[in-house]
Design brief:
With 307 residues, the chain is of the alpha+beta class. The chain is built from six helices and 13 strands. It has helices spanning 7-41, 57-86, 191-208, 214-220, 262-270, 293-305; strands at residues 93-100, 103-108, 113-114, 117-120, 125-131, 136-140, 145-149, 155-159, 165-171, 184-189, 246-251, 254-259, 275-277. A five-stranded mixed sheet has the order 3-2-1-5-8. Strand 2 (103-108) and strand 3 form a beta hairpin. Helix 4 packs across helix 6. Bound molecules: dinuclear copper ion.
Length: 307
Amino acid sequence: MSPGVTGFSGRIVENVFLYIAAIAVFLLILITFLMVYFVIRYRRNRNPKPEDIEGNLWLEITWTIVPTILVMTMFYYGYTGFSTLKKIPEGAMKVRVIARQWSWLFEYENGIKANELKVPAGKPINLLLTSQDVIHSFYMPAFKIKQDAVPGMVNHLWFKPTEVGTYDVLCAEYCGLQHSYMLTKVAVVPEEEFNQWYQKGTEEMAIAKKKPRGSQLFQEKGCRACHSIDGTPLVGPTVKGLFGKTVTVITDGKERQVVADETYLRRSLLEPNADVVKGFPPIMPSQKGLITDEELEEIIRYMKELK
Ligand code: CUA
């Protein structure tokens, strides 16, 4: 395989691609050679009087049948490869993939949630893709697979990693200003390492289930993509030391000063574009309907603690 290509799907797509490319290159050379040869061989000063040529049955049959067979073999390889990539093997590990502006969330069956995908080498993985807002597209170039994540429906995609390593995951559908932020990683780790991590996650989830933690929610809900917790302004203002501070906001086009109290934080999460902090674009997606009251409380409590 070419460098950078990996996995079962990568191999299938790569083989079909190389097969078609090889035929295309062969035909390019053949046609170019014949063209140059005919131009020289049948130039005017060698054949001042053009002659009529009657058809040649054998030649015509040959150049009909040979390309037909070639095209049919391309179709055969393409179609069988496509069917294999569409048929999810039984027992594949399920991971829910939730796309939103502008990050990915990977949810495992034991409840682990992460912004990066981690999978065991050698095992088939079934991704269940959906979106919380607009259409995104889940794209893993090294594995040569891509599938849209559409709000209101679940699309399936499966792959089998073969080599341990870290590969890119991108969004391949322009989904708004920070579309390029939707770059993350898939880490393919040895099965044993994965099982340990998964087991540990199962235990942690059992504890966390009793009490959702604000910092975890802040990460999972995608807040971290635009709001830093260390004071650095990103796409949005930092949340460090925000609670209790006086901020300048634009409300209905007018500038005003507000104290960042609980009411302000709550409003910012549910109606982010009501008061927009001066100097930042009004692009934050509302969390209304995407967040429970309990989660809202936790996030606000977390922000209060970020002194
Ligand atoms: Cu999500 Cu582009």
